[in-house]
Specification:
- By secondary structure, this protein is α/β, with parallel strands linked by helices.
- It is built from 11 helices and 10 strands.
């Protein structure tokens, strides 16, 4: 049996009784960083063998882990913080277990994305999780453009040293969009900063942002939530160009992504009208 065990994202008290029971009863524990996980495990006097398991050794570990699981061993997978598999290692191992008929269960608990969403004050009836935003400028721009078009709340993870560049990009593309930045969740200096990108930029104008961060985008204002399904591709492309100051090529890509059709199809439809 493979157990996916959620662990605290900051406050060590945020762990369930079931999680403690499972961790104490398993044969060994898979950790992203064994040194980091030892802090939690020592705190609760859990003395089990630890094995390193992260994105750089998932493939090489697969055969040995599969053999142990098939032999009937009980294995727990934890991440550095939060729920395994959510922007953390775990998905590949879960897939492997499913392929070989090995039972899996999750021991629920903390998740930074949901913690931030609960306290953000943004709509929760429809939301998407984007994970970590891209690092390269062009890819980041495309990601943000897609997020700005989504008709619900978007939850992203962002690192402190990339936050400023991300906020500047948002301010450039749509300065009026409302954002929420959740920082150091469940910790002593937990903080929520709400407002447009410029407001968040001013918050860290003279100091480098620190701590784990979750960035949330509000949905587009009601007047921007156009019923583009009733539009022609040409009308849709023009609206994207006007709304987000895109060139024709970028607008075509965005429209194709939203309509879930190949870019060539949109291009051909527009070209027939030219």
């Amino acid at each position: 049996m493979l157990y996916l065990v959620a662990t605290p994202i900051g406050n060590l008290a945020d762990i369930t009784l079931r999680a403690l029971e499972v961790l104490k009863a398993c044969d060994y524990i898979l950790c992203e960083d064994t040194r980091h996980s030892l802090v939690l495990l020592k705190h609760y006097e859990i003395h089990k063998p630890l094995k390193s398991y992260h994105k750089f050794n998932e493939a090489s570990q697969a055969e040995n882990l599969l053999a142990d699981l098939q032999a009937g061993k009980e294995i727990c997978l934890i991440s550095d913080a939060g729920t395994p598999g959510i922007s953390d290692p775990g998905a590949a191992l879960v897939k492997l277990c499913i392929e070989h008929g090995i039972p899996i269960t999750a021991v629920p608990g903390p998740c930074a994305a949901i913690q931030a969403l609960c306290c953000a004050g943004l709509p929760t009836d429809r939301f998407q999780f984007w994970g970590f935003l891209p690092r390269k400028e062009g890819e980041l721009r495309q990601a943000i453009l897609s997020i700005l078009s989504y008709p619900g709340t978007t939850i992203c993870y962002e690192s402190p040293h990339r936050l400023i560049d991300t906020l500047k990009m948002i301010a450039l593309l749509q300065p009026e969009r409302q954002l929420v930045l959740a920082r150091e969740l469940t910790k002593k200096f937990e903080e929520f900063v709400r407002g447009q990108a410029q407001v968040l930029l001013e918050r860290w104008e003279h100091a480098q942002p620190k701590g784990e961060m979750v960035l949330l985008f509000s949905p587009p204002p009601q007047q921007e939530r156009q019923d583009w399904q009733a539009w022609t591709p040409e009308e849709h492309v023009k609206w994207m160009q006007d709304t987000y100051s895109l060139d024709r090529r970028e607008a075509i890509k965005m429209v194709a992504d939203l309509r879930q059709v190949p870019k060539r199809q949109i291009y051909n439809q527009l070209h027939q009208k030219d």
